[in-house]
């Protein structure tokens, strides 16, 4: 049995065409079913639905053999014990620093001021500001980071941006592009040794179906 960990929403939706390329069809719609384990047309392949932030953990501990996870989630997790063979070029967005229009971020940085930054992505934020030599106090949040500067709790946020609409709606502007984000295929190292052929088949099919490989 090969178990693939996916999260509902954009990652599930954008992984479906890759699975199709591997001849795998998920037999139930996660938006309609309450099941957490979904069968596929291949009796030896199943999908487990987990929270996006839990995908690397399931694969690390063998709850799943392979998984699809955002680079953001992977960097926060640390990637320990995970083989990362492929950038799937799906669920693309970028990580950015954003601040209220009224906050002169560039000036604060120039002056070496200490700034307060709210984020769900504390590892990425800490590393980014450390490399820039900026002193930050990080506030860990789990949702709606845009609210933190609006309430005066933080000077800026570190968050994922795709269209920029959410930032705009909350009078925030992007002041730093930290990194491009896309989703990665992650594989449990022990599973790869024990089930090499079926896992390789999936990696190869995904590679073929990924834009970078086609170019
Ligand atoms: P939850 O909604 O359960 O708190 P989540 O926000 O991490 O979890 P999703 O919204 O499904 O889950 O996002 C999954 C992944 O999709 C992210 O980790 C990121 O890599 C990618 N992604 C692409 N665009 C965006 C975006 N605009 N906002 C958030 N995530 C995005
Ligand atoms: Mg979300």
From TrEMBL:
CDD domains: PBP2_HisGs. GO terms for cellular component: cytoplasm. Signal peptide: none annotated. InterPro entries: ATP_PRibTrfase_cat, ATP_PRibTrfase_CS, ATP_PRibTrfase_HisG, ATP_PRibTrfase_HisG_short. GO terms for biological process: L-histidine biosynthetic process. It comes from the Bacteria. PROSITE patterns: ATP_P_PHORIBOSYLTR. It catalyses: 1-(5-phospho-beta-D-ribosyl)-ATP + diphosphate = 5-phospho-alpha-D-ribose 1-diphosphate + ATP. Pfam families: HisG (PF01634). Gene3D superfamilies: Periplasmic binding protein-like II (3.40.190.10). GO terms for molecular function: ATP binding; ATP phosphoribosyltransferase activity. SUPFAM superfamilies: Periplasmic binding protein-like II. It is found in: Cytoplasm. Pathway: Amino-acid biosynthesis; L-histidine biosynthesis; L-histidine from 5-phospho-alpha-D-ribose 1-diphosphate: step 1/9. Catalyzes the condensation of ATP and 5-phosphoribose 1-diphosphate to form N'-(5'-phosphoribosyl)-ATP (PR-ATP). Has a crucial role in the pathway because the rate of histidine biosynthesis seems to be controlled primarily by regulation of HisG enzymatic activity. Belongs to the ATP phosphoribosyltransferase family. Short subfamily. Heteromultimer composed of HisG and HisZ subunits. This is ATP phosphoribosyltransferase. The gene is hisG.
């Amino acid at each position: 049995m090969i178990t693939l960990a996916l999260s509902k929403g954009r990652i599930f939706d954008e992984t479906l065409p890759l699975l199709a390329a591997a001849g795998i069809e998920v037999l139930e719609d996660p938006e309609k079913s309450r099941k957490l384990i979904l069968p596929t047309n291949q009796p030896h392949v199943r999908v487990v639905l987990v929270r996006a932030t839990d995908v690397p953990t399931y694969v690390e501990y063998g709850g799943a053999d392979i998984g699809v996870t955002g680079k953001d989630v992977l960097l926060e997790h640390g990637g320990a014990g995970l083989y990362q063979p492929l950038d799937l070029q799906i669920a693309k967005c970028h990580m950015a620093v954003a601040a209220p229009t009224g906050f002169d971020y560039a000036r604060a940085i120039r002056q070496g001021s200490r700034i307060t930054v709210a984020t769900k992505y504390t590892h990425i934020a800490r590393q980014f500001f450390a490399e820039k030599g900026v002193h930050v106090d990080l506030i860990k949040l789990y949702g709606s980071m845009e609210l933190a500067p609006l309430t005066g709790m933080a000077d800026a946020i570190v968050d994922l941006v795709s269209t920029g609409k959410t930032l705009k709606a909350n009078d925030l502007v992007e002041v730093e592009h930290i990194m491009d984000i896309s989703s990665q295929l992650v594989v449990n190292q022990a599973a790869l040794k024990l089930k090499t052929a079926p896992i390789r088949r999936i990696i190869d099919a995904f590679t073929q179906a990924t834009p970078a490989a086609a170019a």
